[in-house]
Amino acid sequence: MEHRYFGASDKQFPILGFGAQRIVDEHQCTEEEAIRIVNRAIDEGITYFDTAPSYSDGQSEERLGKALGHRRSDVWIATKTHDRTRDGSWRLLEASLNRLQTDRVDEWRLHNLVTMDDLEQCFAKGGAMEAMLEAKEQGIIKAISVSGHTNPEVQLEAIERFPFDSALVALSAADHFIYSFAHEFVPRAVEKGVAVIGMKVMALGKLAPWYEQALRYTFSLPVATTIIGMETMEQLEKNLAIAKRFRPMSDTEQLDFLKEIIHLATPDVLRWKASEWMSGEWYRRD
């Protein structure tokens, strides 16, 4: 697989990253199968693993921890805090470390900042940013990150306020048409040396009929890696095959693809950008 630099650092990752949200009972993935899938991914060169304490009440982190075992040093783990306070974030991190069976995480994210008020809470006195800076100073985390699905202006403001190492943002082809992170956020992030990590690639399954085109679209952007949620070995193998034969989309190919899917640019499909989802329960949908 093609490898790319993680922002301004000398760290590199393959273009396909592993979204661990779905290796849980909720998605009909058993613990035994989860362990097999994670180890197969590592065997095939995947080193970037993304999870969060809110995914199935910690089961995603727990299974990832069990799967990694002695291979912990072979991978990069990113987890998150959906709490906007210092103390609440510390509690989440301590629980994450326990479930992941590790004494450190490589990357810790502010989970899905939807509004400017979310951002203000994190940067306020006693806010989540205090926990992040303390954890980095103590060597518990390496990289500080931010994520978002909804309004690129929030993440743009975030990277202007603080030199975040990375940003996890919605970069499906369907996101191209409205509140586009690809248009509004990615160029500035790249300019500032912030690693861009793509997510929501399949648009909650709506892009399944254009599966390889959907992955190629996001891989073709200046992303450090792209996380794909996988709950079966079949999905993993399919994604690996596409990543290994990846070639960037030409402008003509991208235009033809976007013409085919423009009808999907609706609130029902792009629910992460719809007003009824701006309710504070967003982090459960990462």
Automatic annotation (TrEMBL):
Q: Where is the NADP-dependent oxidoreductase domain?
A: 16-214
A single Pfam family, by name? Answer: Aldo_ket_red
Q: Which SUPFAM superfamilies match?
A: NAD(P)-linked oxidoreductase
Q: Which CDD domains match?
A: AKR_unchar
Protein's name in the database: Oxidoreductase
**Which taxonomic lineage does the organism of this UniProt entry have?**
Bacteria, Bacillati, Bacillota, Bacilli, Bacillales
